[in-house]
From TrEMBL:
The keyword Membrane does not apply. It comes from Aeromonas molluscorum 848. This is Phenazine biosynthesis protein PhzF family. The keyword Isomerase applies. GO terms for molecular function: isomerase activity. The lineage of its organism: Bacteria, Pseudomonadati, Pseudomonadota, Gammaproteobacteria, Aeromonadales.
Length: 265
């Protein structure tokens, strides 16, 4: 039996944060995983395969492609493992992924993930991207395969209404917009648009913060930061930069669970 869990990650209450489907996926092939992710049509479906009691293989798929790193899918997977009693509550978890070994631990603030930091580099980005978002960026950057537009204020980030038709004709993988927070309790905000992989706007994107946390940490002179992804659903992350790693903490809750019934041959 293949069990399924619909989880809100980086969420304090239902219908916020980023929804992920978690599949306990022993023995599924890649073709089936991609078709299942397309069927669920969430920004990510996480496929978890047990290796030992605290060690798992983890893969993530959007409705269209497999991705190398996913924060909310990892958070959701760890949440399911602990809440289903597959590991003791105080037992750290480790995941073999396309981005190397990732770990998760529980603490009083939620679930803390340990991810690799991503360095941002200045990039001369075609003005068509900013035009499609209706913004005037202060600077543009590359964060791996993703483009980053730095704006002047949180209000500008929140006011964006992208022209997705215009974005789709441009080459890309994902487009991050970010700015300083306007309140003392939020260091920076962001939003993320990725129509190229079947996700127009991702509600809360943990992997982006592998780049944003070191970037804003240097700007603000901090190693511990509070971030908010200002999508319609919204989500908060507690971040800590430790050398070439980023620790991100959030909460998760299960909305529904069921089982996958493979179609008859």
């Amino acid at each position: 039996m293949i069990r399924l869990f619909h989880v809100n990650a980086f969420a304090h209450r239902p219908f916020t944060g980023n929804p992920a489907m978690v599949v306990l996926s022993q023995g599924l092939d890649e073709f089936t995983m991609q078709r299942m992710a397309a069927e669920f049509c969430l920004s990510e479906t996480a496929f978890v395969e047990a290796i030992t009691g605290d060690h798992y293989r983890l893969r993530w798929f959007t409705p269209q492609v497999e991705v190398a790193l996913c924060g909310h899918g990892t958070l959701a997977a760890a949440h399911v493992i602990w809440t289903q009693g597959l590991a003791a509550p105080g037992q750290p978890l480790s995941f073999d992924t396309r981005s190397g070994l990732l770990t998760a631990v529980r603490d009083e603030a939620g679930i803390r993930l340990d991810f690799p930091a991503i360095e941002m580099a200045p990039l001369a980005l075609d003005a068509a991207y900013a035009q499609a978002l209706g913004v005037s960026p202060r600077q543009t950057w590359a964060a791996g395969a993703k483009f980053v537009l730095e704006l002047g204020s949180e209000a500008e980030v929140r006011a964006i209404h992208p022209d997705f038709q215009a974005l789709r004709v441009l080459p890309g993988r994902g487009l991050i917009v970010t700015a300083p927070g306007q309140d003392a309790d939020i260091d920076f905000v962001s939003r993320y648009f990725a129509p190229w992989v079947g996700v127009e706007e991702d509600p809360v994107t943990g992997s982006n913060h592998c780049a944003l946390a070191p970037f804003w940490g240097k700007r603000l002179g901090k190693t511990q930061l509070k971030a908010y992804q200002a999508s319609e659903r919204g989500g908060a992350l507690l971040l800590r930069v430790v050398g070439d790693r980023v620790q991100m903490t959030g909460r998760a809750l299960t909305l529904s669970r069921g089982e996958w019934l493979p179609p008859a041959a």
